[in-house]
Write a structure and sequence with these properties.
Helix 3 runs antiparallel to helix 4. The protein has a five-stranded mixed beta sheet with strand order 2-9-8-4-6, with no helix packed on it. Strands 1-3-7-5 form a four-stranded antiparallel beta sheet, with no helix packed on it. It has 245 residues and is α+β, with helices and mostly antiparallel strands. The protein starts with 8 loop residues before the first strand and ends with a helix. The radius of gyration is 42 Å and the shape is elongated.
Length: 245
């Protein structure tokens, strides 16, 4: 009995082309189409299993369906004078009604039931035109990014800018608020110093009452300057935020 012809349609049919440089993983695609009305089991083999990674490397193709396979070549030192001897083989067999164990199916398969196709591996370095295109694309990327940035800047609303008079007014208000904050801080420090000096004066007769009133004064008086400081800080933040935006 003669060997069966391959039932699947392979794309590409004979050569798997890998385009360098080969300093990184290079991937090429293989498509398997099942034009028959029966399910077909397939398995992909290679003469250099350590150099390639195939996903998926086996499976079942339904009638009329197509399966895409990725063949990944691992990085290596490419020698243009060395001829590639790597080959792939796509082995197929019609699937039984129920596929339970793929390993047993291939192990028990009769040679006359197997179909296969062989593919040769071809390594290609990028042409000079490809190199020039890559360099031009690399140079064009910063220019395009700069153009996008310029267009974004041009699209900003005009109302976000401020004239010189408004800017001067804002700066003067900020300076006045800063001066007021400094004055409030000085008053707060002065009140604390006065309270410390008053506590050091020996007054035996009214020590308890004076201490109580003095502490009440210290607790109450700094609250007003502190509140003013907070209000002044809010104003400064508001004006500065308006100035920056």
């Amino acid at each position: 009995m003669s060997k069966l012809d391959q039932i699947l349609i392979l794309d590409p049919p004979s050569d798997l082309k890998f385009k360098g440089p080969f300093t990184d993983v290079v991937t090429t695609s293989l498509r398997l189409k099942n034009p028959s009305d029966r399910k077909v089991c397939f398995k992909v083999k290679t003469t250099a299993p350590r150099r390639y990674c195939v996903r998926p490397n086996s499976g079942v193709i339904d009638p009329g369906a197509t399966v895409g396979i990725s063949v990944m070549l691992q990085p290596f030192d490419y020698d243009p004078n060395e001829k590639s001897k790597h080959k792939f083989m796509v082995q197929t067999i019609f699937a039984p009604a129920i596929v339970s164990d793929m390993d047993s199916l291939w192990k028990d398969a009769k040679p006359d039931d197997l179909m296969d196709s062989k593919l040769r591996c071809v390594f290609e370095l990028p042409s000079e035109n490809d190199k020039v295109n890559d360099v031009e694309a690399t140079k064009a990327a910063p220019v395009m990014n700069s153009a996008k940035a310029d267009s974004s800047a041009a699209s900003m609303p005009v109302t976000a800018s401020m004239d010189d008079s408004e800017m001067k007014k804002m700066m003067e208000k900020c300076k006045r608020l800063q001066v007021e904050m400094n004055k409030l801080a000085d008053e707060n420090r002065q009140l604390k110093d006065d309270g410390i000096r008053m506590r050091k004066v020996p007054r035996q007769d009214h020590m308890t009452s004076n201490s109580t009133s003095l502490l009440g004064r210290e607790a109450g008086t700094p609250s007003l300057p502190s509140l003013l400081v907070v209000i002044a800080a809010i104003f400064i933040g508001f004006f500065l935020g308006k100035f920056i935006l």
